[in-house]
Specification:
This protein is an alpha/beta fold and 273 residues long. Helix content is 40%, strand content 12%. It has an eight-stranded parallel beta sheet. The radius of gyration is 19 Å and the shape is globular. The mean pLDDT is 90.
Length: 273
């Protein structure tokens, strides 16, 4: 029997029989940020289930968001254990923006930084869903967090916007964030929805913006798979998406590659060359 040829994943390689692929990690676009919600209707995976998931899906997951204030609310030994598992599998865990907003509201950002270091979380989302920061205050907070050794992900937009934002304004925010070393900018889904409703042509222009490659879109987990598939159609398979639940990760990766009935197994189409 001839020697069996395998790739770096241990998968068998064949001359003609191949699964559809896309760019591997580390990558700058096509990011998938999973949301770790703890006990919920999306399913609590826990440390044992997390290892099983990552054995299959770590190469498809770039970030894992520790939902809301779970990084503070759950027992520190459990959080440290989960964080360590993510890191061992090459997935970057980060604390959700509501934790920052809570700390800022309580004038306790310094204590939040101490806590994140204790539970070994190195990345934090800075959001303004329920607090509103003036530009100089926002920049001061980012600088404070970065000087403390934290990587910052910025979430742009509000949960309940009152008027659509222009693409130019979005671009100015993203470019400003990139200029101060922010890792990525998450675009609040409600902002995208309002922009699409008020200015449909803007949705076609959005992926043409150079700064868009630094953005991560935030589909609603409860709208899976329809909203996620629509984003792939609108922005391409390398669109970066967050708030993907553990049970959605592998299906989403399939959709990106054209695998699955909801995307009509498009990788089999002659158009997908």
């Amino acid at each position: 029997m001839a020697d069996e040829e395998t790739d770096e994943r241990g998968s068998y390689t064949y001359e003609r029989l191949k699964a559809p692929t896309r760019q591997g990690k580390p990558r700058k676009t096509g990011l998938t940020a999973m949301i770790d919600v703890g006990p919920s209707d999306f399913g609590w995976i826990g440390p044992r289930g997390l290892k099983d998931l990552l054995d299959f899906g770590a190469e498809f997951i770039d970030y894992a968001k520790i939902f809301a204030i779970n990084a503070l609310d759950y027992p520190p030994p459990l959080i440290r254990k989960m964080v360590g598992i993510y890191k061992d599998y090459g997935v970057t865990p980060f604390a959700g923006g509501i934790l920052f907003e809570t700390a800022y509201h309580q004038n306790a950002v310094d204590e939040m930084i101490t806590h994140l270091k204790r539970v070994e979380i190195d990345t934090l989302e800075l959001s303004e869903n329920y607090v509103e920061l003036e530009n100089d205050v926002r920049m001061q907070q980012i600088d404070l967090l970065q000087k403390a050794g934290l990587t910052v992900v910025y979430e742009f937009g509000r949960k309940i916007p009152t008027e659509p934002l222009s693409i130019d304004y979005m671009g100015s925010i993203v470019e400003k964030m990139m200029g101060v070393g922010v890792d990525h900018v998450i675009l609040e889904q409600s902002e995208i929805d309002m922009l699409a409703a008020e200015t449909p042509q803007a949705m076609q222009a959005l992926p043409q913006q150079k700064w868009f490659e630094h953005c991560v879109l935030e589909p609603d987990p409860y709208s899976f798979p329809h909203q996620h598939i629509q984003m792939i159609k609108d922005f391409g398979p390398e669109v970066s998406l967050c708030n993907v639940t553990p049970e959605q990760v592998l299906k989403l990766e399939g959709f990106r590659r054209g695998i699955g009935r909801p995307v009509h197994y498009s990788y089999l189409s002659d158009d997908l060359e």
